[in-house]
Amino acid sequence: MPQRTLLFVLFDGVQSLDVTGPLEVFTGAENHTPGTYRIRTASLDGGPVRTSSGLTLVPDEALTQTPDPHTLLVPGGQGTRSPDPRLTDWLRAHGPRARRLVSVCTGSILLAAAGLLDGRRATTHWAHCDKLARDHPAVEVDPEPIYVRDGRVSTSAGVTSGIDLALALVEEDLDRDVALAVARHLVVFLRRPGNQAQFSAQLAAQTAQRAPLREVQQWITEHPAGDLTVESLAARARLSPRHFARAFREETGTTPGRYVDRVRLEHARRLLEDTSDGVEEISRASGYGTSESMRRAFLKALGTPPAEYRRRFHPASAH
């Protein structure tokens, strides 16, 4: 197996975890299977850079002196807001030569500024998706997933999602056993699928201010198969159905029905990914009642039926 050279691009204002998270993953894989990766870091002039948290990183070399890598990894951070034009120029010239382009968090903004995401589907940190789409209309921005892979280009959302993407790349380069060994060493999940939403249902919605509504939110999450009609939830909050529906939307930013839908979909996806339970059993446990109801919900939200979703994302079905 040929050794792959990985180059991490460093710049002032970089997010340290965007660098060190994936770096630990690939280094762990190299330690497990020596000769797999040659890992380098480089800044524009080869000098130290100061991260957004104040940590100083000392690169191995200057970008102008490094040979074209197999995998070029561009992290994000505050330094992507007003990047050095020389960095954008370097990416524009050298990005197309890499076999694989990877960005973490707002590193995708640098790739887009260099024209490397035109015509591709990509993601970034949820807080910057609108800006990426507005400033670069040639990029198909998907704000939902924790990472997106489009051919040779992979982009990921905020900070820790870079670890998820790096583990997926290690699994692709080597095998699942190596990726699992690295994940265990780092005490992280091996398979957090790329199409998993950046926010869980609880994070996607605002937390209600009033205690009765917060308690209802928590109860929904813990009882997806329960009676989650507006009438039942309103009674639990000791409000009339009309008052409850209005207050829930005002305080959470979504309707009770949409919140319930998201919780049930998230619960079903987790069971499909992490268990061997049958589809019928999962549909009942997630509050759908029948497998056909769950199938319709998956097709509407994800564009794929539950059986195909499991085939893609259940570890036992990965190979």
UniProtKB/TrEMBL annotation:
Pfam families assigned: DJ-1_PfpI, HTH_18
Span list, region Disordered: 61-86
GO molecular function, one term: DNA-binding transcription factor activity
PROSITE patterns named in the record: HTH_ARAC_FAMILY_2
Extent of the signal sequence: none
Keywords: Transcription, Transcription regulation
Domain HTH araC/xylS-type: 214-312
Protein name: AraC family transcriptional regulator
Organism, scientific name: Streptomyces cellostaticus
